[in-house]
Amino acid sequence: MRIDVRVGAEADELRSLHQWLGADREIRRSSSLTLQEQPPEPGHMGGLLDVIQLVTDNGWSAASFVVALAAWKRTRPQDPRIEIRRGDTVIVLTQGSDAEIARVIRALETSTEDEAPGT
């Protein structure tokens, strides 16, 4: 399963979240994390960091992942908007409240259950 995570417009925030998730033993055990770039704009040498790509295995836990996102979010001086994309499903984590965390977990688990085997 592949999940893309975007954080506002700041590359530093994306790097910070990438390091945070990479330090989480549960996430590291069940997934692969990479930073992806947008293609460079015409006249520019390189692309901009755009997304964290998370590729997971069967042992992946949506709850662990979302709780780690919310915990990182609470450490930020600004309140970043986190967009989570899984296939056609886009979920936004804005407040990090318990109710919102539960909603995001349900949405990720539902999209996982709807996925055809082998995709």
Automatic annotation (TrEMBL):
<dbReference type="Pfam" id="PF19953">
    <property type="entry name" value="EACC1"/>
</dbReference>
<dbReference type="InterPro" id="IPR045428">
    <property type="entry name" value="EACC1"/>
</dbReference>
<protein>
    <recommendedName>
        <fullName>RCK C-terminal domain-containing protein</fullName>
    </recommendedName>
</protein>
